[in-house]
Amino acid sequence: ASQRILQIEARPSPFYQFAMSESNSFRLLNLIKPGLRILPEVVTPEYRVPFKEKICWTAISLFIFLVCCQIPVYGIITSKSADPFYW
Predict the structure, then answer these.
(1) Is 75 left (phi over 0), alpha (psi -120 to 50) or beta?
(2) How far is CA 30 from the centre of its chain?
(3) In Å, what is the CA distance from 57 to each residue of 45, 64, 73?
(4) How far apart are the first and last CA of the chain?
(5) pTM as predicted
(6) DSSP-derived 3-state class of residue 73
(7) 25-55 residue pLDDT tens
(8) Cβ distance 50 to 44 under 8 Å?
(9) Nearest 5°: phi and psi at 21?
(10) What tens digit of pLDDT does each residue of 51-78 get?
């Protein structure tokens, strides 16, 4: 009884071949490149934003956040227990 030995050629998957660079090393960037076409690009800023303006916008957004934290969410039943984060 002779046995047949099947030789299976080990070939890398198409995704792995796609991610290989010219130097035959795996590069994650080669996998990501096709998806980058659908992402919008960010334009470089026209001018450098001054520090005072950054602080002003940070203070405004912090104030809005703190005001919105005090507005109760509709449908949530409040408990009478002590809440350390309520002020």
Answers:
(1) left
(2) 18
(3) 17, 11, 26
(4) 86
(5) 0.43
(6) coil
(7) 667 777 787 788 888 888 888 999 999 999 9
(8) no
(9) -95, 180
(10) 999 999 999 999 999 999 888 777 777 6
What are the distances in angstroms from CA 37 to CA 17, 20, 34, 41, 42?
Answer: 20, 19, 6, 9, 13
* Whole-Å CA distances, 74 to 33, 44, 49: 44, 41, 39
Q: How many residues does the chain have?
A: 87
Q: Which two tokens stand for residue 83?
A: 């809440």
Q: Could you tell me the two tokens for 5?
A: 């030995």
Give SS3 for 26.
strand
Count other C-beta atoms under 10 Å from residue 35's C-beta.
8
Amino acid at 69: C
Q: Which two tokens stand for residue 67?
A: 């005001």
20 by DSSP, 3-state: which?
strand
